[in-house]
Write a structure and sequence with these properties.
The protein is of the alpha+beta class. It has helices at about 10-20, 85-90, and strands spanning about 25-35, 40-50, 60-70, 75-80. The chain starts with 8 loop residues before the first helix and ends with a helix.
Length: about 90
Amino acid sequence: MANAGDYHGPEEFRLMLERWTSAWGEYRNEVRDITEYGPDRLVVTLRFVARGAGSGAPVDQQQAQLIEIRDGRMTHWRLFHTPEAAMQHASTL
């Protein structure tokens, strides 16, 4: 991924999202499934459809997001290529 790495805190997360969205001329996420994985974790399976901002190259892929929530706030977010990979990582937290 173009902006792979570790980001800590709301400001770094916002910056990562800005960099990510600027790479796309257009994009959308279509949520396919949300699975509760424990009391504070969700695995969100989605279809990511986009077109590159500079190249115009189309992208259409499955993704999964692992989201951890504590006290009503997101404390962990990670992107995976498959729901199985997201669930496997969730089991290590």
